[in-house]
Amino acid sequence: MLLVAAFLATAIAGPLIGVHQLDAASSAQTRLAQSRSDLDALLRVQLDEEASLRGYLSTHDPGFLSDNPSTPQFDLQAHDLEGRLRAAGLTDGVATVEDMGARHKTWKDTVEQPLLRRPNSRDAYTQQQTGKLITDQMSRDADDLRGALGAASDGVELTLRRRINATLAISAGFVTLFAIVALWYALGRASAVARLAEGQLLVDALQRTLRVGGQRLAATEMGSAYASATREALVGGDVLDAWRAAPDRGWFLIADASGKGIEAARHAAFTQYAIRALAADADDPAEVVARFNRLFLDTFEDPSVFVVLFLGTFDARTQTMRYASAGHGTAYVRRGSLIEWLPPTGSIIGIDRAGTYETETVPLALGDLVLLATDGLSEARSEDGEMLGEERVAAILRDAPPDPQTLCDLLVASADAYSGGVQDDLAIIALRIVREDENAETAFRTMGGTLLS
User: Does any domain span residue 412?
Assistant: First the structure.
């Protein structure tokens, strides 16, 4: 079990580390490219000043001086460049820019200003030659700095390749170790080798674990649906899960992590497995949600990251549902033709460490149906920007067939038709209360549901 956990952790952490390394390298390359651009602009100021002075001396036309950049522009450009070079760790480059600044000042003091005061002096030609030498030296300084920036860029690429190779090697090592043990205990060599050879299938299996999963709860019939807004990845920030804590009692969870795609999936995976772990030794939903809120804040420091969730437990003996809702909006119970809204019992996860949560108790009867959906359903927008809204969702629920899976499919189709395609991650779970013997006669459902990709 520990080896399996280590393998799964490596499978998740490896790509995340790679993405982080790519982001860091991209940022470093961006700083270096901007530094090269700033260096070119800095040298251009000097060249423009020299050209303007030369034009004025040749024609005595003050118009040449009106376009002459001012020294503050050179100093500002140099200051910005020095800041980028410090951020890139190029202290020698900072010294080079300082030298260029000193030469620029020397040029202003010993060449430009004297020539502007006495353009026809006998020393004018000598002063111009001196100015050209100063500018040429600044150009050589700039060439040296360009070389240093190019070398730094090559170093970033080399370091990135080494780090990614090291990450892949470590990940491959863990995968290989897992494969050896799996081969030893596997029922047959052929099936084990096939699983390892189909690495993408393992990734898909992991992704599907993030999308849907769990067990049928006693005395319930369950349906689900999931759609990701990120077309290039079949994962998103929504979680569906259900699991048994005892033969007659179980938990069910729906959650929506902020963001989209892989990053949201990371937060969703954390939510799913953390909630399961916290609920293992608890029976009060509010206690589990409160502990998860503190754990989430201890784990993720980004204030823009949050989770909306609904955690419920159902006892088949008493036909009672107890739940805690952290800001979850689309939650209903259908009793015949009556629709009852289940309000939130606390704030969104990740906002307030001192946030408190309450547990609400809801009695359920045979035929009652519980519907939970993330905001991708109610916030589906038409072409003119109007949202589907909770009232339309409640109306669809009121008139829908009693089968939970049919209801989930109908809601997905309604949102898709209304908005012209999934615009936000969407997850739906529906539970209908049935007799245990009636449920046992039906096909076992494990929340496979509908998947849109």
Answer: yes
Instruction: State the residue range of the domain holding 17.
Output: 2-161
Asked whether 344 and 325 are in contact (CB, 8 A), the reply is yes
Q: DSSP readout, 292-354?
A: HHHHHHHH---TT--EEEEEEEEETTTTEEEEEEEB--EEEEEETTEEEE----BPPBTT-TT
Lateral strand order in the sheet of 330-335: 338-341, 330-335, 369-373, 426-433, 220-227, 450-452
Does residue 341 sit in the same domain as residue 239?
A: yes
Q: Last residue of some domain: 161, 190, 223?
A: 161
Does 136 lie in the same domain as 267? no
Of 44, 100, 98, 88, whose CA–CA distance to 69 is shortest? 44
Residue 167 lies in a domain: no
Domain count of the fold of the chain = 2
Helix, strand, or coil here: 155? Answer: helix
Residue 221 and residue 77 share a domain: no
What's residue 203's pLDDT? 42
pLDDT tens digits, 197-237: 454 444 444 455 555 457 899 999 999 998 776 544 556 78
Whether 278 is in a domain gets the answer yes
Tokens 């420091």, residue located: 301
Task: Please indicate, yes or no, whether residues 140 and 232 belong to a single structural domain of this protein.
Answer: no
- Residue after which a domain boundary falls, among 102, 133, 161: 161
Dist. CA 250–CA 217, nearest whole Å = 6
- Residue 449: DSSP 8-state: -
CATH no. for residue 40?
A: 1.20.120
Q: What is the pLDDT of residues 30-79, one digit of tens each?
A: 888 888 888 888 888 888 888 888 887 878 777 777 655 555 788 888 88
Q: DSSP assignment of 237-249, as one string?
A: SEEEEEEEEETTE
R_g over Cα of the chain: 33
433 near 366, Cβ under 8 Å?
yes
Q: How far apart, in Å, are the Cα atoms of 41 and each of 78, 89, 98, 142?
A: 9, 21, 15, 11
- Nearest-angstrom CA–CA distance, 37 and 342: 58
First to last CA, the chain: 32
Domain membership of residue 56 (yes or no) is: yes
DSSP secondary-structure letter at 257? E
Query: 0.85 cut: is pTM over it?
Result: no
